[in-house]
Design brief:
Shape: globular
Strand content: 25-35%
Structural class: alpha+beta
Order of helices and strands: HHHHEEEHEEEEEEEEEEEEEEEEHEEEHH
Bound molecules: zinc ion
Number of strands: 22
Radius of gyration: 24 Å
Largest sheet: 7 strands, mixed
Distance between the termini: 38 Å
Helix content: 10-25%
Number of helices: 8
């Protein structure tokens, strides 16, 4: 925008306005600077939150709470929209500060059980520190070999060859094209200085002979540090080999539940946040009993796979294109902590609506007659929590019913997607189907809702 004013001033001095009598005497820049400052204020306070571009840098300035700036006339906002494409497309305003946004393009090859993808990742340094590296979780490496913390602490996966899973960063570059791939370094944050302190009571302590072997966290030292309140964009190419379904991610036959599947940035905690006495990355190896910690992020994910698969995700389906037997589905999710997806040829889809929330149930054909039970349970959970805690802020929720041979994916939550659990011929009086749906929705709700969304209600 500022460039526009500089150009206008340039024209005034040297060409157009110079030719108009009187105009040359008017100082245009001093007039425009306050106007520009006002626009920046609107921009920061939320006006452009609803109208600015995914790729523009505007999200950097977005804060929780939405618009506090003056409302613009629709005509004016239409004109401004010509300058800014949309950042908020689903929610009216961001629910938390925008620290990370992921733009992912991924393709599933069902034969090799592999997902290849590209990520454009933006990260804003939320601290007063100069940050010299980025740290990513590579969760699928928990299934890579017996030396991972996950396996060594007792969560066994089948020993069959072909059951392994991993995620490789094939390439990572800054937006300026600098290749950082050679700098990647696996780190084991929980082994230094006292691994036993980070071992939960149910977990086996890590044996010293496997120290240094876990590959579920990687550090990328940067050539140019990220200054306070500034941002960095990196482009990542990755390959994920999905493990045989266990511990809630992977494949079985041609059923896919794709979770913890891409290099996911850790959380940089500024001094004073939670337990952080000084600023630093809060990353941990993948332990058998740990959960996943991430920033609320913007996700735009394009998934390509053969067209006969039915796909569901934690995002809202924005677009679908089919060509040469393949489909590309564009999902988008705002302010969620994790993005997972699933694909199966067998799913039947049931859609319903509760207030603003579009509920999409992906159910096995043999459980189809129980669809109503899941939907009613989800609506009950939405209603109950909205009445007693605060409204569910998203307008989409996906419920996934895995097949019997995919039960490894059952009973889990990913903010806007939950996995249910039921059995064929489950009697109506045994409320297991309802219980799992409500239970997982409860996890998703309490784990996923940004504090600002709840606090604004209270
Ligand atoms: Zn639970």
């Amino acid at each position: 925008m500022f460039i526009v004013f500089i150009v206008v001033d340039f024209l005034r001095k040297y060409w157009f306005f110079g030719k108009c009598k009187g105009f040359g005497k008017i100082k245009i820049v001093p007039i425009f600077v306050p106007a520009f400052a006002k626009i920046v204020k609107w921009y920061n306070s939320g006006f452009v939150n609803r109208n600015s571009g995914f790729d523009s840098r505007s999200w950097l300035n977005q804060t929780a709470g939405g618009s506090k700036g003056p409302r613009l006339q629709p005509g004016v906002s239409k004109v401004l929209r010509l300058f800014f494409t949309k950042a908020q497309q689903i929610l009216p305003a961001p629910l938390s500060p925008r620290i990370t946004q992921y733009k992912i393009r991924a393709e599933l090859d069902p034969a090799s059980k592999t997902v290849k993808g590209e990520i454009v990742l933006d990260w804003r340094n939320p601290s007063r520190d100069t940050v010299k590296d980025l740290q990513f979780h590579l969760y699928l490496n928990a299934f890579k070999n017996a030396r991972s913390t996950f396996r060594a602490q007792g969560r066994a996966a089948s020993a069959d060859q072909g059951d392994f899973g991993y995620v490789d960063i094939d390439e990572i570059r800054t937006s300026r094209g600098e290749d950082l791939t050679g700098r990647l370094k696996f780190i084991q944050p929980d082994e230094n200085p006292a691994p036993e302190k980070l071992t939960l009571p149910e977990e086996k302590p890590l044996a010293p002979d496997i120290y240094g072997k876990d590959q579920t966290v990687v550090s990328v030292p940067l050539t140019t540090a990220v200054l306070p309140d500034s941002s960095i964009r990196v482009k990542i190419r990755f390959t994920s080999k999905l493990p045989k379904l266990s511990s809630r991610t992977g494949y079985n036959q041609d059923y896919f539940f794709v979770a913890q599947w891409f290099p996911k940035l850790g959380v940089y905690e500024p001094a004073g946040m939670r337990y952080a006495q000084k600023g630093g990355w809060n990353t941990h190896q993948f332990h058998p009993n740990s959960e996943f910690y991430a920033n609320h992020s913007l996700y735009q994910v394009d998934i390509t796979l053969p067209e006969e698969y039915v796909v569901g995700s934690g995002g809202k389906l924005m677009k679908k294109e089919v060509a040469d037997g393949k489909q590309t589905l564009s999902f988008r999710a705002e302010n969620i902590v994790d993005f997972a997806w699933t694909a199966s040829k067998a799913y039947k889809v049931v859609e319903d609506q509760w207030k603003q929330v579009n509920i999409k149930l992906l159910i096995q054909p043999e459980h189809y007659y129980q669809a109503e039970r899941h939907i009613r349970a989800a609506k009950y959970a939405l209603e109950y929590l909205a009445a007693h805690v605060g409204p569910y802020p998203w307008n989409h929720l996906t419920i996934v019913d895995p097949p019997t041979y995919g039960q490894g994916a059952g009973g889990m939550e990913y903010t806007t997607m939950i996995t249910a659990g039921t059995f064929y011929l489950l009697p109506a009086q045994i409320r297991m189907a309802e219980m799992v749906t409500i239970h997982e929705f409860g996890h998703a709700y309490f784990m996923g809702i940004p504090p600002a969304a709840i606090l604004s209600v209270w």
